[in-house]
Amino acid sequence: MTDTSQPPRKGQDFEQVLDKSDTRVASFETRAKSPVERLQHLLHGNPTLVPVIVLLVSIAAFGVIAGGKFFSAFNLTLIMQQVSIIGILAAAQTLIILTAGIDLSVAAIMVLMAVIAGNLAVYSGVPSGIALLIAFAGGAGAGLMNGFLVTKIKLPPFISTLGTWSIFYALNLWLSGAQSIRSQDIDANAPLLKLFGETIAIGSARLTYGSLLMVLIFLVLWYMLNKTAWGRHVYAVGDDKDAAELAGIRTDRTLLSVYALSGLICAIAAWASIGRVGSISPQAFYDGNLQSITAVVIGGISLFGGRGSILGALFGALIVGVFQSGLRLAGVDVLWQVFAIGWLIILAVAIDQWIRKVSA
Amino acid sequence: MQKLMLGTALGLGVMAGGAYAEGTTACLITKTDTNPFFVKMKEGASAKAAEMGITLNTYAGKIDGDVETQVAAVESCIAAGAKGILITPSDSRALAPVVGKAREAGALVIALDTPFEPADVADATFATDNFLAGELIGKWAAAKMGDTSTAKIALLDLNASEISVDYLRDNGFLQGFGVDIKDPKDIGDEDDPRIVGNDVTNGNEEGGRTAMENLLQKDSGVNVVYTINEPAAAGAYEALKAVGLESQALIVSVDGGCPGVQNVKEGVIGATSMQFPLLMASKGIEAISAFAADGTKPQNTEGLDFFNTGVELVTDQPIEGIPSITSEEALQKCWG
């Protein structure tokens, strides 16, 4: 029989004081977050917010400094035209950087493919469509070569693409004889090559097909990176390749596909560049690789891989374009434009580092 | 080394013809071996060297401004015992010490196309008179316009470092057009209200287009466009065409490359000043040969601190009083 009337058991003498103690299981010290910390959290959760804010602020600032000539629909769409090629290269560059790599050969692939398409279509009488398809295949092949060096030969991406940059540049000079293909010759023999120079006029705004192509490429890549398994694999590989491998991702295959796609995008950029420049110049875009990296970095994409939104690179490219246009229209000497872009890069990476240090 | 031995062998072969030619080695060092201008220069030098029985070693920097490679090239030439060095310095000042060593070692050093600073670092300079090249197109543009008071001038220059070719052509053009140029070694210090602005092109089509777009943004009434070279001019034309203003502006340029001359023929470029890289190189080889024979050094053109290899105005709209050749004639002489 159980004696139910027995009073609840008390602890021993020395335990009795526990009754008065705090009964919560566990707790964390909380304190009100300062506005700066809240901003840090917000930016950490939305990595594209920084470039969007910088873009809007710089447009507003140059609108005041340089006046109506800057802040017109014509000039703003002109900036889009001017950044379209570097913007597309930045899209290709972002893919590589998201995998914690870097691609120094993007612009060299582009110029080489433009020269190949031009030589075939303008001088050898190959139909333009086929010439372009050959260039696309060539671009993807060039990207695959980078990917092969990175995944199979296990070279660091920096070294692989430093090498292929020179190789592709030399091939370009050999094929072109360092000589431009003139605009008038392209018009006469292969007008399709200049498709992306066509313009849609809306009021005083002048949108070229090339500007629209740039935006389209970013939207498609954004969808692929965020809404498909492949895209999540890219982020996973960039964040921690070993962990991704253990999670069952075929990392080498993912990397190869990223490099091939990046090369293909460079070849598409080649087509767009013919429309933009008018002629095919083997000497143009020599530092396009660095300009594309600049756009990616200013766009808030981490050079350590696995973090950042591809749309950031689009805003990064536009920020550079806005600064260049604004400073020119304000009558600032060229060397100060270079100076300003340098500070932008440092500022962008400094902000990125600060955001990464976000505390709970 | 193999080349050297081959040179000696060739030298022995022609001993009967003239003992002085024995083993004469010359060097050609260009800024790059990609620019058609330097490619043509190399062709000219090689052809002349073969004709005169001189062994020619050629070197080039990887890109414009690649000083280290050029320094190493000069050192190789000294080591090879070259009688003469033809060089287009990538940096007018930085190469002076190594050029001094080459001269001490007994080589004749001739600067081609780009002068040293000061010019007497080298024994001689064979170059285009770039100021005159600019002046010719400036005069032509002014005469073509007639009334220059309504001119709106866009100046498309090379790059931010403002090297001598850049400021000489730019200021030459402005002087020819009738603008007060202030400091002849500075770009953009003019205060003439007819100047819309300066921008840089890196001497290629892409840069030319972007620069022209920027200056049109400053003033869409631009009607005279000076360009540093013909690729930049082709880019400027594309920018004007994109906004339907190609018939409003006169484009002038400098160089004389074949695609540029073709653009003069098709009316894209109004006039261009042609220079002669092939002549610079072949004259250089002749000078080295003469120096090797009896130590004579080349003389400068009177009134200049260099030997002028000539410049000709190319246009299909000739102006009375300004000597010019047609694009048809120019296509026979163009380089690249």
UniProtKB/TrEMBL annotation, chain A:
It is a multi-pass membrane protein. Keywords: Cell membrane, Membrane, Transmembrane, Transmembrane helix. It is found in: Cell membrane. It comes from the Bacteria. The chain crosses the membrane at residues 48-66, 104-123, 130-149, 155-175, 207-225, 256-274, 295-322, 334-355. PANTHER family: ABC TRANSPORTER PERMEASE PROTEIN YPHD-RELATED-RELATED (PTHR32196). This is ABC transporter permease. It comes from Rhodobacter flavimaris.
From TrEMBL, chain B:
Keywords: Signal. SUPFAM superfamilies: Periplasmic binding protein-like I. The keyword Transport does not apply. CDD domains: PBP1_ABC_sugar_binding-like. Residues 28-292 form the Periplasmic binding protein domain. It is found in: Cell envelope. Residues 1-21 form the signal peptide. PANTHER family: D-ALLOSE-BINDING PERIPLASMIC PROTEIN-RELATED. Belongs to the bacterial solute-binding protein 2 family. This is Sugar ABC transporter substrate-binding protein. It comes from Rhodobacter flavimaris.
